[in-house]
Every structure is written in C-alpha cells, then in structure tokens.
Amino acid sequence: MQAAIKEAKAGIKNQDGGPFGACIVKDNQIIATGHNCVLKNHDSTCHGEIDAIRKAENNLQTHDLTGCEIYTTSEPCPMCLAAILWANIKKVYYGCNLQDNEKIGFRDVKFEKLMGDRSHLPPNFLEEHDRNLCLELFDEYSHLEKTIY
Amino acid sequence: MQAAIKEAKAGIKNQDGGPFGACIVKDNQIIATGHNCVLKNHDSTCHGEIDAIRKAENNLQTHDLTGCEIYTTSEPCPMCLAAILWANIKKVYYGCNLQDNEKIGFRDVKFEKLMGDRSHLPPNFLEEHDRNLCLELFDEYSHLEKTIY
What is the DSSP letter of A76? Predict the structure, then answer.
C-alpha cells in the first residue's frame, strides 16, 4: 500500500487526476504501480487500478494477471472492479471505501447504486487495508485542489 | 453500427482480440471508433468500448463525452458500462447481448452475476440495435479462431 500511496501522491502533485494509486504484486514482488491520470491523459478510463493493470500486463507481456494481487488507495469503482476480474487478479486490498470517495467529490457511490451489486463476490475478495493512511492522502488531496469529474 | 462492425471485423482479422467494435457519435458526427485489442496490446482493459472512449477523448482533448452516444457490437460488460457512465455518454446502442457473448466463449455473464445489476439504470439507457448484423459478426468470429479470454 505504501507504493500505491506514493504513486497517488505523485499524481495529485502533478494534477494528473484524483488521489488514487495502485500497486500490483505477484509472489511478493511489485509488478507495476499506477495512478489516476484522467486529467493528464484526457482519459476517463485511466483510474489508478486500470493504469496499474495496463502497466503490469505490459511488463509481463500478457493479458492475464493470474496469481497477482492489487493494492489500491480506494475501493474500486465498478469499472475497476470488473477490470480486476477480467485480469484474473485474485485479491483486492483497498484503503478508503466508496463513501470516502464520495466525501471528496467522486461519483463511485452513484455508479455503484446504478449498476453495482457486490453481494455475490467471494467474501474475502475485497479487504480493507491501511484505511487511515489513505484517508491522510485524501485529506492532502482535499487541500490541494477541488477538481471534480 | 456499421462503423462499429467494420472496426470489429478488422480487429478479428488481425487477431487483435474478440469481435467487439464501438463507435462514438456526437451531433450525428463520428468522433471515434475502436475495437477490442486485448490480445494485440496485452491489455485486458482494451475492450471495444474502452478503446473507442480513449480515442474519442483524445480526439476531443477532454475526459468528458457529454452529449455523445455509443454504438457497440455487444452489450457492454460491467467494466465498459461503468466506463460509459464515467465518460458521461448519454445512450448505448448495442447489437448482441451478454448471453450472445457467453455463447462464443466470453465471461460477461459471469461477471454480471458476480457484481452487476442493471435494474436501476434509466430504462432507455441501453437499447438493442442491429442484433442480427452483429450475430453475423459473431458467427464469422466463431469460424476464424477459438481464443478465449
């Protein structure tokens, strides 16, 4: 999670996007890190998890991340959660939750209500981890800028 | 939809990925087309809709596709559906449905059961369009190769 937070902090300082970083790990090795680049890349799909998945797959030259786990500063939105499933990532450790995202101005909760239902996922697939550290990151973001998308 | 099908056909001939193409339109003008490049790019997130969204946003130099509609050869999976919502696309016209996707070996139905629920979307947000033409595309794909991901 430290690597995910570091990515997110670099991203918000550059105004790349929101305070969202991710790190993909396999066999205790970091495969890739990524962060939200929605603003920088003019790409609404470039959330932290998607950025990390794309980099990990490029690094391993595969579209299949079987055996990998992902650490992300925020509970994945429906887009990123489905991306994680398509990539065959086996476990998600997230810091802040969807409600925390809403408090800093992001629409994850709205979209989860519109099209999401996590009740059928395996019970340990999503696990909260280091929320307090990630809340500090969110607080830092809140004091940096107010861009909402 | 013709442009989306044309994209998909070019993609499967090059073995870029599955038979999925998309076209984004604004004010009756095509902004961008895209197709599934999961295999070509080693990128499990590069579904047809996501490829088209990235290209449209790059073409318009924005992360906001307000006022746009998307035509896609297949009903969007949860990842692409959420990507469409994040991009503020107002309407989705799809050809084949999720069950058609399952018949040619893709996991959309599985992921929809695991994390999706479309019952809260506006009733006309998703609209079937030219399914028969898209089923012909799926049939062509089925006879070309059997790669499943």
Answer: P
Indicate yes or no: CB of A111 within 8 angstroms of CB of B82: yes
> In the A/B pair of chains, how many CB contacts fall below 8 A?
122
Indicate the pTM of the whole model. Answer: 0.96
Q: What is the pLDDT along chain A (149 residues), one digit of tens a residue?
A: 999 999 999 999 999 999 999 999 999 999 999 999 999 999 999 999 999 999 999 999 999 999 999 999 999 999 999 999 999 999 999 999 999 999 999 999 999 999 999 999 999 999 999 999 999 999 999 998 655 54
Beta strand spans in B20-90 (E): 21-26, 29-35, 68-74
Helices assigned H by DSSP within chain A = 2-13, 38-41, 48-60, 78-86, 98-103, 108-115, 131-144
